[in-house]
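Pasting two entries for a bug report.
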Amino acid sequence: MEICTTSLILILCFLQSAQAILDPIDFLALQSIKRALHDVPGSNFFSSWDFTDDPCNFAGVYCASDKVIALNLGEPRAGSPGLTGKIDNSVGKLSSLVDFTVTPGRIYGPLPQSLSNLKNLKFLGISRNFISGEIPAGLGQLRNIRTIDLSYNQLAGSIPPSIGTLPKLNNLILRHNRLTGSVPSFASAQNLNRLDLKHNSLSGSLAPNSLPPSLQYLSLSWNQFTGPLDRVLYRLNRLNYLDLSLNRFTGSIPPQLFSFPLINLQLERNQLCGPVKPFNEVTIQTVDLSYNKLSGEISPLLASVQNLYLNNNAFTGEVPGSFVERLLAASIQILYLQHNYLTGIVINPTAEIPLSSSLCLQYNCMIPPVQMTCPSKAGYQKIRPARECNQPLN
């Protein structure tokens, strides 16, 4: 009986050790990945990658049974030196991979086309490296993917339309690359929460139904987009962050936009025109509408904004009294109204603006009645020339 028990234990131990042996395909794939990458000086990430040992004990390698399910290349600590080299095509052979990340470093070359083979992949994060070439269209085959972060690289070409059809995609972050062309439709990406395409060379206009109402974070700034916004934005009533600055958007600002649950609204440096007329008191913390062609009187409903930038537009009339009240109560931290056509503000000349607040009225059709704290780029002329104030605005 004792012999049988001992034999059973030995068999169980053998089976457990057999199960711990990594799948040969994954083993060879890790070897190829290692050969194509190197630690930069100061990094010791690959010091544990000794293939005479179990690869599931390697730094950045996580296994379930005999398969690699997560591969995180590079030291996880912030500011680590990172890796250099290229991402080998054999990464596509890790068929059970769910998470693939590369820490910031000096990895160059294109993204492997074989990434499209990773049908179980949920997270792809390769940011702050020197990845070049185009985004593989095959990423549109990753039907389980939740997050794609390829930001701060040197990717060029257009965004593959297939990415816009990914049913489970939550986050698409492609900021700071060299992407061109138009934005594909994301209408069928009904789980998309974050779309960040900032600082590329994308162009064209946005189709009315091209963005899903599930969006909560949208950044398209520093591109070359054109066309009106009203038909695009009215459906996106879940947005809490919107940055469309430094583009060429035209037309008016839809009033309902100010009723969205936004914390930050940045529309500066476009070609937006017409009056700004919110429906209700605006509770957005920061609103930047500067450097546009907006006109009409300033709505008192904007007085509840903590940081308000309306400078370099064509606003006329007097500054509403509600702004003065909130400014003196230190409820407004920044109120930039410079470079408009404003004609007055009712405020006691002896009033002291709180140190925590900044008011700039420079270069309007009035003499500023109080001491101002203006940015240096506002210039040195305090009053707009009378000839400009007497001309009708176009």
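Entry 2 (this is the one that rendered wrong in the viewer):
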Amino acid sequence: MRLYASVPPRRTLPLTPSLVLAAVLLLVGGLLLAYPGRAGAAADPLISHGRPATSSSVEDSTFVPGKAFDGDPATRWASAEGSDPQWIRVDLGSTATVSRVRLSWEAAYAKAYRVEISADGVTWSRLATETAGNGGTDDWTGLSGKGRHLRVHGTARGTSYGYSLYEVEVYGTLDGGPPPSGAFTVVAAGDIADRCTASSSSCAHPKTAALAQRINPKFYLTMGDNQYDDALLSDFRAYYDKTWGVFKARTRPVPGNHETYDPAGPLAGYKSYFGALAYPQGRPYYSYDEGNWHFLALDSNSFDDPAQIQWLKDDLARNTKGCVAAYFHHPLYSSGGHGNDPVSKPVWQILYGAGTDLVLNGHDHHYERFAPQDPSGRATPGGIVEIVGGMGGAEPYPIETVQPNSQKRISGTYGVLKLDFTDTTYTWQYVGTDGQVKDTGPTYTCH
């Protein structure tokens, strides 16, 4: 028995004369009542295809949440088996009015679930509720909800397995029109692998790795101190490799100060472990492009090296992309225990002069975002947005001295940055290991 539903989902039933007659009457009635010039909710466009997705769990790396939004009916998301509740959610990219949600269940279906919508990924409103699901396809039409995030929240499994969806299709209209072009998602974190494993409940880097994998971004960034304490190759293999190393081939790292402590030589274990991923241009700093973005991966341990500074200037002079992001370990500004690090100021001056939009850092073990500012710390709309994301797994640091232009600070909550880029804009969320969004940044337009 369905206790509540905005509009019951349509199901495929055997055709009988009475059903045919009823269908004809419904069609005629719909045509008579339809508002002129609007074909109805079913005609709204699909707005969820390829959008960033997260979930409460995955059965394994084959069944990540993005598979439910890839348009391929042969791929699917599957949750961990045997536990309730579980959920899958999608970020639509901007506020949308949702009129229809179509769910294509695999054999592991939900007997009871809710379709929910949220403006911020924290507070959810119900669009529809199912209490007697039987799998197959559920097509919820005639919905009326507004928000940026949509979630299917399973509360009771229909089988002894988990929840599994081939496709989640969300239809509606985005407030800003069609989704912007060149969209892609990146996951970033710094200060990651403590010398512990998942066998310890207090070990955080297995949890941040699982979260990062569920988000399933285009690629991953690390902002240094990838492996503690001295970044030995043996420790990389024993700890980092078991968690964040699962998606090593899609990772674009930079070193931190702990990578310089290796007794075998500064960056020795780091270079041996990552190889060409960390040295694609033969140096521990490099650049690459994605869409309309130019990314600069820098080694802040050697910002006093004239060779790196000259390379940076030359690289920026050659850049043809409209948006620029840089990432390195030591933040110029931070409200944490390490505080401001003036070693980064000369590089900031170069980046600022080239119109750089975004800088990502680690070093201090907390999350913090700053308003756009110049290298001297003056707030300016044309300034650089800095984000500290050092909560990848190392022990948290407290907030000590709040810096000017600091807009949000979170300490003690492990998580990752989920950054959404388009050809002209960027925004982000700080997502905790519990899957909840702890902070959402503004949407900025590239300089």
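Dev reply: Rendering is fixed now. As a check, the viewer should reflect this: The chain is about 15% helix and 30% strand.
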